[in-house]
Amino acid sequence: MSLQIELERSPKAYLCNPNVDIPVGERNMRVEDWLNDKIQTTADMNSLSSLLENVNAKQKQLEEQLRDATTKLAEAKRAAANHTSSLAQKTQAFERQQDDLRARLMMLTSSDSPEEAVRRLEGPMEKLRQVELAQAYVELLKDVDDMTKEARQNLPDNPTEALKPYVRLKQLAMALQATQNTTEVTAPHLVAYVEQTATHLWAQMVQIMVREFQDVLKTLKWPDLDVEVSRVWQTCFGRLLDLQAPEIREAREPLILLPFAVLVKEIELKFRYHFMGTTPTSGSSLLGEYYLNWILDVIDSHESYLRVNAGPVLAAHFLGSSLAGNSLYIDPVSAFITALLPLVKDKTEVVLKDIQHDPVHLSKFVGQLMIWDDSVRSKYKYDGGNIEFGWVGVTWHVLDKWFAPWLEAEERFALQRYEDIMQSQDNGNIDYDSNESQKTKTTFGATKVTDLLKTITTQYKDLRRASHKVRFFLNTQIAVLDKYQIRLSESLDAYISLTSTVGRIATGATKEQQRSVEGMAGLVSLCKVFGSADHIISTLESLAYEMVSISIIRYNSIMSSTDMWLVFRGIIFPVG
Question: Coiled coil where (predicted)?
């Protein structure tokens, strides 16, 4: 068994001297135990020489380890002494520097204490801080300039890459604006410069890409719809969409796509020449008769061209995006209509300002706008990007400002029409050809009143804002019904007073008046009232109003059919 010596694993082995630290008796006992372990038989004496060689080798190894440990210990002691000396020297040097700095501060400021010297140096230190801040501003301006140059270098070939520095610049402008009021140092000029640079850069980027598309359109003789578009046309069309990607993502309202804004440019020039210039068709007295139909004709003539050429590009561009189901971005005709709507709104505003004091023209013009809105919705399936509720229409925005004068005009016309009906010669005559068999016969006046109510209902249904519907309903239809109710009620009250003794005495009725309510003449008078009331009620129910409206109408009608029947029954079969 070989001798196992592992003194190198114990730090104590390097510190103990076996000749001094281990007693002689203990050393002899260890040697004796080791010899007894190694030499137990006579045969073990033959390996005595090898044991001695092994012992000598172990001894040399231990001596080498001891020398190495002694050397390392000496080096460690020297290093520790040097470090302590160096640290002491550095401490002394720092103290000398601090004393020197204090002396210099007091010398420069003629101060008697360091605190006073620091106070006197606040001014120069603030100037130094301003210099550092100015340096930071210069670096920021350099970054802005670099981002601007990088964006321009990528146009017109790579608008997607051009967007990256532009987006960084825009984010920087937004960050500066957000922190403007929260930082100690404000820099309104810097913030304004970065914002203006971002805005100007975007305008330049759009201008470069638009000019490229315009050059392509010029070679294709746009707006000639018979010329077949080229691959370059589709490429430029798609690049404009790429450039507008951030704006499209952030849009909360219907957005005009850049390629369609370019396509509409020539159409806009023609529109403004014909309808917003000095030509005869520009007159506001013509209302929407020409320009609204002109826009529809433009859409019709371009529909096929747009679906064939722009449709595939839109579908490919928005494929897989959240806008893939939005008609404003995947339907070329809807996108085209969106680009044309500003022209309609501008012309509409001009007309409204010119006719605002003419109720007749105002009423007619709003009606034309409602019809035009419905045509766009039904013919082109235009929903304004709102699948759930649909497009609100140009009329929606018009009535935001002009609803009150328009409602006043409509109310005036409705009441005037009602008065004309009441003044007509056949107003009180029974229309024996009215209604089906086995129903009451109404008067010509009641028929005309129901026609008026149907006209009002048509306008009421075209209004898309609930508050406008309610106000229009109350101010026109209810106003007409109230007047007609009063008229029929007065007729009924007059009949009742003339058929009673007290009533005849109180009113001083003449014999001619008494004869008008007796016999067949009285029956005819009552039938006029009853037939007219029944006809009004039936007509209102057939208009498919909301149940609330029907309840209001029934409540305000002359009287229920039951009450009228009781009066009618009392005439035919008098009691007693």
Answer: 45-79
**Amino acid occupying residue 245:** A
pLDDT in tens, 441-498: 888 998 999 899 888 888 888 888 888 988 998 889 889 989 998 888 888 877 776 6
pLDDT at position 262 is 96
Taking a C-beta distance cutoff of 8 angstroms, is the pair 193, 187 a contact?
no
Which of the pair, 356 or 186, is modelled with greater confidence?
356
* Exposed e or buried b per residue across 144-166, where buried means at least 16 C-beta atoms within 10 angstroms of its C-beta: beebbebbeebbbeebeebbebb
Query: How confident is residue 563, by pLDDT bands cut at 50, 70 and 90?
Result: very low
Q: Are residues 545 and 503 in the same domain?
A: yes
Which neighbouring-strand residues pair with 390?
A: none
One domain for residues 456 and 502: yes
- 459 located within any domain: yes
Instruction: Assess whether 503 and 378 both reside in one domain.
Output: no
- Count CA atoms closer than 13 A to 321's CA, side-chain side: 15
**Dihedral (CA of 432, 434, 440, 445) sign:** negative
Give me the number of domains the chain comprises: 3
Considering only CA atoms, which of 464, 480, 452, 255 is closest in space to residue 366?
464
pLDDT digits (tens, 9 = 90+) for 44-71: 666 777 777 888 888 888 888 888 888 9
Q: Does 438 share its domain with 295?
A: no
- On whether both 281 and 428 belong to a single domain, the answer is no
Three-class SS of residue 519?
helix
Above 70 in pLDDT, residue 320? yes
Give, in order, the Cα–Cα distances in Å from 526 to each of 92, 495, 512, 566, 571. 125, 8, 17, 12, 9
CB 244 within 8 A of CB 258: yes
What is the model's pLDDT at position 575? 33
pLDDT reported for residue 332: 96
Peptide bond connecting 156 to the previous residue in cis, omega within 30 degrees of 0: yes
Residue 214 lies in a domain: no
* Residue 66 structural domain: 7-96
Helices (H) and strands (E) in the chain, counts: 23, 0
**How open is the CA angle 326-223-395, to the nearest 5 degrees?**
45
Instruction: Please give the pLDDT value at position 416.
Output: 94
288 and 383 together in one domain: yes
Judgement on whether residues 59 and 91 belong to the same structural domain of the protein: yes
The rounded radius of gyration (Å) of the Cα atoms in the chain is 51
Indicate the helix (H) or strand (E) that contains 173. helix 159-179
Q: What is the pTM of this model?
A: 0.67
